[in-house]
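Bit of a strange request maybe. I'm writing a small parser for structure token strings and I need a real example to test against, not something I typed by hand. Could someone generate the tokens for this chain?
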Amino acid sequence: MKDWALELDRQLQEMARRRPRGSVRRTWVGTTALAGAAGAAAVLAALAVHSPQRASAFAVLDEPATDARSLHDIVPLLVRNGADLRHARAIATPSGTGYVVSADGGRRLCLAVPDRVDGYGEGCEPTARARRDGLFQYLAGPRSAEFVAVLPRDGRASGAALSHRDGVITATVERPTRITLTVAGKTTTVPVAPMGRCVAAGAPLNDAHAHARRLRCTFA
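Reply from user aminoacidic:
Good idea to test on real output. This should exercise your parser:
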């Protein structure tokens, strides 16, 4: 291995002597790492240990992963979007453990919230849109509604008794109210209401926008 390194160094010096006048001397960059394969491996190992990992735009995605493949048959929307259930992030919601899941090779972000019966409210958005607006779900029951949002690091929420952890916002509301999400200076107001407090019930329980359009509610 030493003879190989010496020969490589000799060739590099020969190339340097022959280079045209004024050429850029790039040949020498990193040559000190070529003393041998073992030395190069040690350098790479040190870089792997000491280089900081790039933080995700969403703090929750930097949390330890959870294998949620057991949900495969009850989260069809996530499956259709190519969710990586093996590396889901478990989150606490008012009705139990929910999941934030990267999908489609990181191009989409999905949220699954338990519905207190036998399934999950599901939603997926392009990751770029979720970075701009956040990602949220709410499930409206007869007496209360549960709201869950996933916000990027610069996001914040207001408008109800909210719980915050790692960019995950949760709330249980018993009367019509509005929750305001602010991301990068852009504000989105989400009307949230229990179905029993509104007229003309019948919107999909996990479709916040349709729920707000089809029901006549008086929001706080």
